[in-house]
């Protein structure tokens, strides 16, 4: 339930939960759903439930088995704060992350309200980063919930970017990832949308990471924005590794 990741901003993925449900436009062409259904058809026992939310408690201690420090994307195939994931199980995931403090854990959710509700009862050491996903201006309300979370690094995944975001709340935010959609039904991204977010990040001194233009495959459009790649990371990466 873990693997070396091709995602540019992380090293590996760890999935103590799989499966999810759609809650906003960014979910329409979910890559994780496509992959989960393919794995089910291939007979992978981890995906016998397809894309229904499924807990995998036998995978909880996996990060402790990795001796080399990594940046780990938590639940690339789910959402840890999904309403079907019990709060006690979320706490167990966090307890394991606390123990495996050689790694940086990158937790990402669209369930920002539940995150804000549970955050006071969760541990937040400096190697646990928390982010929320947003896709257009209408969903920047998730950032307000994230700003209440006492994580050392709070980040935004603006992917897939589906429209302009002229006013991105950046107070207390340390890192912004932007990317276009990939897959057979990918929706287009406009360069001016990306440039506007980059402008806001540079003005606010927030690290900016441009992941991809998107297309039929993640690599289709490349990663170059105005003649260069943008791979900025939070300053704490240097301190923790």
Number of beta-strand segments: 10
Written as H for each helix and E for each strand, in order along the chain, the element string is: EEEHEEHEHEHEEHEH
Q: Structural class of the helices, strands and pairings?
A: alpha/beta
How many domains make up the coordinates?
A: 1
Summarize the biggest pleated sheet.
8 strands, mixed
What report would you give on this structure?
There is one protein chain. The protein is α/β, with parallel strands linked by helices. It has one domain. It contains six helices and ten strands. The strands form two sheets. It has an eight-stranded mixed sheet. β1 and β2 form a beta hairpin. The longest helix is centred in the C-terminal third of the chain and has 14 residues. The protein starts with a strand and ends with a helix. The model has no long low-confidence stretch (mean pLDDT 95).
What topology does this entry show?
Elements: E1 2-4, E2 12-14, E3 17-18, H1 31-41, E4 54-55, E5 71-74, H2 87-99, E6 104-109, H3 112-118, E7 128-133, H4 141-146, E8 154-158, E9 175-179, H5 191-204, E10 207-212, H6 236-240
Parallel strand pairs: 2-5, 5-6, 6-7, 7-8, 8-9, 9-10
Antiparallel strand pairs: 1-2, 3-4
Key traits:
alpha/beta, two-stranded antiparallel ribbon, 8-stranded mixed sheet, 10 strands, 241 residues
Short structural description:
The chain is of the alpha/beta class and 241 residues long.
């Amino acid at each position: 339930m873990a693997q070396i990741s091709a995602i540019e901003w992380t090293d590996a993925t760890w999935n103590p939960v799989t499966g999810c449900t759609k809650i906003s436009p960014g979910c329409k062409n979910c890559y994780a759903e496509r992959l989960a259904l393919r794995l089910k058809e291939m007979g992978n026992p981890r995906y016998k439930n397809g894309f229904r939310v499924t807990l995998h408690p036998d995978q909880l201690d996996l990060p402790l088995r990795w001796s080399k420090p990594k940046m780990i994307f938590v639940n690339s195939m789910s959402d840890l704060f999904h309403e079907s994931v019990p709060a006690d199980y979320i706490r167990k995931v966090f307890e394991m992350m606390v123990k495996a403090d050689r790694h940086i854990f990158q937790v990402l959710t669209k369930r920002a309200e539940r995150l804000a509700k549970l955050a006071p009862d969760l541990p937040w050491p400096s190697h646990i980063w928390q982010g929320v996903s947003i896709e257009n201006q209408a969903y920047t309300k998730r950032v307000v919930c994230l700003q209440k979370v006492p994580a050392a690094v709070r980040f935004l995944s603006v992917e897939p970017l589906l429209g302009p975001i002229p006013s991105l709340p950046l107070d207390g935010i340390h890192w912004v990832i932007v990317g276009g959609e990939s897959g057979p039904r990918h929706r287009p991204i406009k360069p001016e949308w990306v440039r506007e977010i980059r402008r806001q990040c540079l003005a606010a001194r927030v690290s900016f990471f441009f992941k991809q233009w998107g297309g039929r495959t993640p690599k289709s459009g490349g990663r170059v924005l105005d003649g260069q790649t943008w791979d900025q990371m939070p300053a704490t990466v240097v301190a923790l590794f």
